[in-house]
Structure formats: C-alpha cells, structure tokens
Amino acid sequence: MNFWQNFKRDFLVKFWAPIPAVIALGILSAYYFGITGTYWAVTGEFTRWGGHILEAFGVDLSTWGYYKIMNMDGNIFTRIDGVMIIGMFAGCIAAAFWGNNVKLRMPVSSTRVYQALIGGIIAGFGARLGMGCNLASFFTGIPQFSFHAWMFTLAMILGVYLGAKFSLLPFFQSKIKLKKVSCSKELHTDKKRVNNLFKLGSIVFIAVLLWAVYLIFVQGSTKLGMAMLFGSAFGLAIAKAQICFTSAFRDIFTTGRSQMAKAIVIGMAVATIGVFSYITMGQPAKIMWAGPNAIIGGILFGFGIVLAGGCECGWMYRAVEGQVHFWIVGIGNVIGSTLLAFVWDDLSLQLATSWPKINLLESFGNYGGLFLNYGLLVLLFILVLVLEKRYLNKSINR
C-alpha cells in the first residue's frame, strides 16, 4: 500500500483521536485570535442571521440595542465570523464525505422534533444572554482571561446536569421496540458511492482553499481569507474527531465517561498561553460582563444543549451528515438568539451592562492572571475527575 493510500485511510477516512484534535483546536484558536483579532465563536453570527431575516420582512432593527452591540455591518460573505462559519461547514462536509458518513436520517419520533426545536431555542437564547456559547464563553472565552467565562462555564455544567436529569424522564425515552435477530446481517459497501463521495469531499475542500486564496490575493482581504482557512480547519477537526461539548459534560453525569471533558480542559490550557502571548504583544482581549447574565445564560445554555442533543459545534457536523434532527436544532439556535435580541433592552441593564467586565490580567497583573487562570483550569480538571469518580462509585453501589 503506497503513501497516499495510508494517508487517505488514517487521516481522511478514519475518525481522529479526540485529545490530539482538541489540543490542535486550542492551538488553532490562539492563532486565529492573533491573526483576525477575534475569537472562534458562532452564535453571535447566528444572531445576525436572525436580524437579516427580520430585516427582509421589513423589521427596523436600528433601535435594537443588541444589534448595535453585535454590529450588523456587511453580510455573511464580508464579516469575519460569517466567512469563518462558511469554512466550518465546508470542513464538516469534506470530513463527512471523506468518511462515507452521509445518510439522510429522520427524527425517530415527534418528541425528538420538539426536543430539537425547544432545546435549540433555549440554548440559543442562553448563549446570547451569556454573550457566548461553548466557544466564546467557554473554550475560547476562558483563554481570554474573562471572568465572565468562568461564571458561564460553572453555570453551564449545572445546566448540563439538570438537562441530563430532565432528559432521562420516561416521557423522553424512545418508544421503539428492539427486535431480536437470530443471526448477524452482512453489510454491503457500495464502493462506487464511497469513491464518489470522497471525490465530492475533495472538491469541497479544494474549493474552500481556492476561495481563501482569492480573498487573500485578489480581494486583498487577508483576515477574511484566514477566517476561511481557520474555519475549514475547525470544521474538519470537530467532524473527524466527533467533538461535541454537550456530550463532554453530559456523559460524566449519565455514563461516567470523562475523556472528552478532560481533553477540552487540556485544549484550553494549551490555548491560554498562546492567547496570553498575543495579548502581551498588544492584541486586546475579548472581555464580557461578569453579571447575572453569565450565570442565567450558562444554566439555560447547558440545559438547552442537553435537551436538544447537541451544542453549537455538534449540530453543525451532524447536520451535514444528514441528521435532520440537527437541522432543527440549528434553526432553534437562530430563533433563540434572535428572541434574546428582541428582549435585550428590557434585560440588559439589570443583568449585564451595569456589571463590570473583569479581565483577570488587569485585576491580578499579567503573570498573576496567567497563573490564576491555570490554577482554575487545574481545579476544573479535578472537578471532572471528582464527578467521574462520584458516578462510578454510585454505579458500583447500586
């Protein structure tokens, strides 16, 4: 077997190990911050999509405070976040096609449809109330040294716990009966279909690379081109390693598995030093309000992603794999984000904007803030281990 066949099998067709992939995401997110000046985030752009839909129906958003904060200038093709998300979808599509992991799958019941939509709405609303989702207020927010991200994260874990307990109620259990079979069924692989899908994935990936080159060298927009490249790398990594922030913490409470949660903490530790380097060189950190909005938003977000069955990253790669359930989750995210924008002016003063933006580097000095952030990451890692051990002990004693 030649080099290309080995490379194709090991890196394009097979799934990737989660820990190296999450560490790679931590490194990529730090470089993304340094090059583009913003962090890897998605729900802010989803909120803008909702705003553009409202404008298409004649709604005047000029007085909506949230859209003033979010900056509605341009469109998905001219904003860094918009272009990055296009790249993410392209990376997810390439990964799904390369791995022959594409099949139209409908929700198994109407209950699952309601879960997807309502959970998606709750998660979208909570994410934007907390000024970020599992990315901007967690995976990429904590390395920004924003105290609000720590508040959101702990609240999110509580929300995930509540969501896990709620989703285990009999009402949500599948009514499908398992059938006993007498022998295994032979699986047949359509080699022509596999090859065609692989070619389609390659075309998508090459196209997004050419698009990035066009943006950089023809349009002269280096940041947009780099956003496209980083977005495709983000999408490829989360899809090939099947990274889902929902399952990372939900599984601790439902099965005791903590591999993904531990990998995510390690990824944030890696990203922290990279982001710290850029900040000390003059790149301003992204800091949000450390108010009740972070706590309430975190709880709602954690609860919503478990109810829906997927977070803002997880639903993207599952949707392109053909799982219709996650198309509905994505629609719910946009609706929930837009609902938050609608009520923001009534909530913002009490819950967010009157509260301070706490930068750990400014509050404790550069190295004090750095060591504090790493200390908190160590405590988060220990919390994951404690929750894992607690579940296993309970399982043994049953």
UniProtKB/TrEMBL annotation:
Subcellular location(s) of the protein = Cell inner membrane
- Does this entry carry the keyword GTP-binding? no
How is it placed in the membrane, per its record?
Multi-pass membrane protein
Where primarily located? membrane
| Family matches, as Pfam families | Sulf_transp
**What InterPro entries does the record tag this protein with?**
Sulf_transp_TsuA/YedE, YedE-like
Keywords assigned: Cell inner membrane, Cell membrane, Membrane, Transmembrane, Transmembrane helix, Transport
Transmembrane stretches in the record are: 12-33, 76-99, 111-129, 149-172, 197-218, 224-249, 261-281, 293-317, 324-344, 364-387
Record GO cellular component, one term: plasma membrane
Keyword Transmembrane helix: yes or no?
A: yes
What start-end ranges are recorded for coiled-coil regions in this protein? Answer: none
UniProt record similarity statement? Belongs to the TsuA/YedE (TC 9.B.102) family.
The name this protein goes by in its record: Formate dehydrogenase biogenesis protein FdhT
Q: Source species, please?
A: Malaciobacter marinus
